[in-house]
Fold this sequence. Notes:
62% of the residues lie in helices and 0% in strands. By secondary structure, it is mainly α. It folds into two domains: 128 residues, Orthogonal Bundle (Hypothetical protein af1432); 86 residues, Hypothetical protein af1432 (Orthogonal Bundle), CATH 1.10.3210. It starts with a helix and ends with a helix. The model has no long low-confidence stretch (mean pLDDT 93).
Amino acid sequence: MTDSEREHWERKLEEKIATSDMGHDPAHDVAHFRRVVAVAKQLCAEENASWDVVIPAAWLHDLVNVPKNDPRRSQASRLSAEAACEYLKSEGYPAEHLPAIAHAIEAHSFSAQIECRSIEAGIVQDADRLDGLGAIGIARCFAVAGLLKRSLYEPVDPFGEARDLDDLKYTVDHFYVKLFKVVETLRTPSGRAEGQRRATFMRTFLEELRAEIRASR
Length: 217
């Protein structure tokens, strides 16, 4: 695919996301897709992976947005893969790339627990998971918690030091139940290094939060 063809497709893919119904989830707005694609491009170049697979998959990875508290959540990546391939096929995207794009979209999901079988899938997975870490990850975490009406923290034991963690109730718990674990799943060298950097910032934030909570007692 030529550079001009790729530019053409990227304009179409961004337009598709911009005009799709993403619901009212502030963590999965158009800006989220742009950030994921930007990181995916960087990783794609570093890993010498296929642009023709990585970039469509990155743009369309959450084409079907299933809320986090929906019982169908674990099916979201499969539904997105199906919808993405249907759209790409209808627009005449080269058919030989569709199976790899579908796999990359399906495998990006944390909840789906699908093993990546290609470097392209690993790149899309890393790019999406990095957007859940660092400063933007903190912002997205609390935005979703507000949408789902979850408390900021458990008032007696905010950091779960003497109780079972429950991120369905308490937002701070989500850092320990999922976000820090995500860092250990990153696949590319650059992704892992960036994940560690972002995790360090998150721990700094939580220490400041701990200090402010203590000061309020």
